[in-house]
Amino acid sequence: MSSIELAYESFGEPGDTPLLIVHGFLAASRNWRSVAKQLAEHHHVYVLDMRNHGNSPHAEVLDYPSMAADLWAFLENHRIASAHLLGHSMGGKAAMWFALQYPERVANLIVADIAPVSYQHSFDDLVAALSSLPVDSIGNRKQAEEALAESIPDLAYRQFLLQNLLLKDGTYYWRINLDIIQKNAHHIVGFPDTGEARFAKPALFIGGGNSKYLDEEAIYTVFPQARIVEIPDTSHWLYVEAPDAFCRLVNDWIGGGASLTV
User: Fold this and answer.
1) What domains can be seen in the chain, in order of their start residue?
2) pLDDT over 80 (residue 261)
3) In whole angstroms, what separates CA 10 from the centre of its chain?
4) Nearest Cα residue to 85 out of 119, 135, 37, 39
């Protein structure tokens, strides 16, 4: 499996075991800066831009085996024997698949609001809406927000997605390759067949109290020593809505996990 060199941001001082953060679908390292800075009080944090996201190169393949290969290459290139691995949504699936393939490289596994299952939803309408945006005639970001309002009514989510819309020489363009995203979106909602593979070490799964993404049966099947904790009154974007509680859980777990307090 060929890998690519991932772009990243780094926070904190180098220590014994770094913490790698893997973002979700259509996100980027910049979405995790505030959380990363908070976690950097105790860890050396790398926040990665996954392939086809952020400042990392584009590639025709976007699935979890390829993302796991990129993570392995990152550890190799940075001479990291093992790392604490934190992934959200798509990044959580990438982290899970990596942990199943290379358990010796994972010091602690933390998965935010996702499970090792294939979901039924589709990104087709979302990608179609982004593709329909007339970027050549957009004069400012406000116009882009308004143009997407009918198809993506949630303003916060529109603004999140529009972080992928960049301006160069007076013309807007998508930083992400929407054709590649569309061709591979089914891999993102899916998850590879784990077969008999199991992650024998403890793993922390943090769920949003109002979210429905965690599947306890599926989690315990593949991660039999998992610990599942929910943050009340949060959605899928739990690290944005409750950053202090989220960081406290991450730090508690890496510190030994004896007392996971929300």
Assistant:
1) 8-118+190-254 (3.40.50.1820), 124-176 (no CATH)
2) no
3) 16
4) 39
Say if residues 43 and 250 touch (Cβ distance below 8 Å). no
* pLDDT per residue as tens digits for the range 149-208: 999 999 999 999 999 999 999 899 999 999 999 999 999 999 999 999 999 999 999 999
Catalytic residues: 89, 179, 236
Backbone φ/ψ region at 65: left (φ over 0), alpha (ψ -120 to 50), beta: alpha
- The pTM for the full model equals 0.96
Q: What is the pLDDT of residues 230-245, one digit of tens each?
A: 999 999 999 999 999 9
